[in-house]
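Reply to dn_fold:

You asked what the input looked like. This is it:
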Amino acid sequence: MPTPTPHLTPLSVMLLALLREDDMHPYEMIRLMRIRRDDRIIPLTNGTIYHTVERLERAGLVTEVGVDRDGNRPERTTYALTDAGSAAVEAWVRHELPRIDRPLEFRVALSEAHELDRATVAQLLTERRDGLEADAARLQNEVDTSRRGGTPEQYLIEVDRHLALAAADISWLDAFLVRLQNPDLAWGADPSASRSDRYLSQRKAARL
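and this is what came back:
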């Protein structure tokens, strides 16, 4: 009997998303994530990844499908994504994509946004854009009030940076939302991607 679904961390979601591509053992997951430079987003350590996979298995989000031994190497247990695991990824992305207060989670949600349909992503990112705009307007009003009250500029440097980053984020979202409507932008499952030379070479390197 699976234990209750655990709180999904960004790493949990990234691992579950990997298993949407194919069954894998944790060592291959680690290698593939490093090849793809997923460590730009989140630190990757072997111990944490193995522990996370174990938690996901106890929760019924992944399941063991085989154990292999190659020469003198340790046994490698291969896992597959369950229906519950697939649903958990989609639910997590839906929840995190519009939020403006969890930057790490947003980056992971954005990287997995292709798991949702185009219209849903557009709606969720529009919510995020509107939230950023409202938050920036509120903060700008507070800064203006502080300046009128004589607050020295040295105490407002970080706020200036926050506003600049929010403006850049809004600008990027505006451009991406237009791009998302273009049918030339491939979206969703692409069976040919798993047969591309680049993908196959990555998988081969990850298995070494």
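The two ends are 35 Å apart (CA to CA).
Hope that clears it up.
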